[in-house]
Amino acid sequence: MPIRSWLFVPGDSERKMAKAPDCGADIVILDLEDAVAPGRKEEARALTRQWLCAREEPTKDAPDYWVRINPLDTGYWHYDVEAALIGKAAGLVVPKAAGPEHLKRLVGVLYELEPRNGIAPGSTKLLPLVSETAQAANAIAAYGLPGNELPRLTGLTWGAEDLSAAIGATRKHDERGRWTDLMRMVRAQTLLAAHAAEVAAIDTLHADFRDEDGLRAAATGAFADGFSGMLAIHPAQVPIINDAFSPSEEQLAEARAIVELFSANPGVGALQLDGRMVDQPHLVQAKKLLAQAR
């Protein structure tokens, strides 16, 4: 089933975690990195582990729970992974991931820890943040290259805040409010690499959670560009994101018509539909759109 909304929830806030099951997000990410001060890492890790272990048996509409661990060049990440797997988190969000090779150490640890916690080997998924350092941004294309396949990889996502800080950029948007050329490049690389790797392309967050119109425009544009979901930092953003990444009935009806037309005319490369030509790229796009319907 398509994953549209990925909501970050601070791993040190029991109050906010308690609200997570009812927020409507497809994925809830319990955050042990940016949302937690260095002095509270251990407390947040323990709370996240306890909360995951105590949660009720998931229902059909319940979100999956992931954990954002700390970067792999810190002393925190191994303990984060242990806590996440004790709580049987569905996946891990990996910050500052500098390419597929950078993830192999983590993958090895997962294969060690999964059997100890009653988890099927290979079932813990990964979503790397692929653009938070200059080195990471330079390695984005590697995720889509032959030989770099990662079976655990669910998708790729990117972030502007950490990259800006890493390179000393003083802006992320231009005078018209659009991403700067650098950010647009990184965003496009993430999108293309995800499709090349045949995993989900997840757009970055809209930082102003009170700006509903801006979020709606960003999410609608991301869906039109080929992203399948979007990060969120506030529960109020979730319904807007879910709506933007859910094909409309009109879009679905047209997609079904295209698929049915080609099914009725096997072997034909191009056909007419409602007075216009449709060909194989239209068929591919129609099938992808139908796959995104929930």
From TrEMBL:
<dbReference type="Pfam" id="PF03328">
    <property type="entry name" value="HpcH_HpaI"/>
</dbReference>
<dbReference type="InterPro" id="IPR040442">
    <property type="entry name" value="Pyrv_kinase-like_dom_sf"/>
</dbReference>
<dbReference type="GO" id="GO:0016829">
    <property type="term" value="F:lyase activity"/>
</dbReference>
<protein>
    <submittedName>
        <fullName>CoA ester lyase</fullName>
    </submittedName>
</protein>
<keyword id="KW-0460">Magnesium</keyword>
<feature type="domain" description="HpcH/HpaI aldolase/citrate lyase">
    <location>
        <begin position="4"/>
        <end position="235"/>
    </location>
</feature>
<dbReference type="InterPro" id="IPR015813">
    <property type="entry name" value="Pyrv/PenolPyrv_kinase-like_dom"/>
</dbReference>
<keyword id="KW-0456">Lyase</keyword>
<comment type="similarity">
    <text>Belongs to the HpcH/HpaI aldolase family.</text>
</comment>
<dbReference type="InterPro" id="IPR011206">
    <property type="entry name" value="Citrate_lyase_beta/mcl1/mcl2"/>
</dbReference>
<dbReference type="GO" id="GO:0006107">
    <property type="term" value="P:oxaloacetate metabolic process"/>
</dbReference>
<keyword id="KW-0479">Metal-binding</keyword>
<dbReference type="InterPro" id="IPR005000">
    <property type="entry name" value="Aldolase/citrate-lyase_domain"/>
</dbReference>
<dbReference type="GO" id="GO:0000287">
    <property type="term" value="F:magnesium ion binding"/>
</dbReference>
<feature type="binding site">
    <location>
        <position position="162"/>
    </location>
    <ligand>
        <name>Mg(2+)</name>
    </ligand>
</feature>
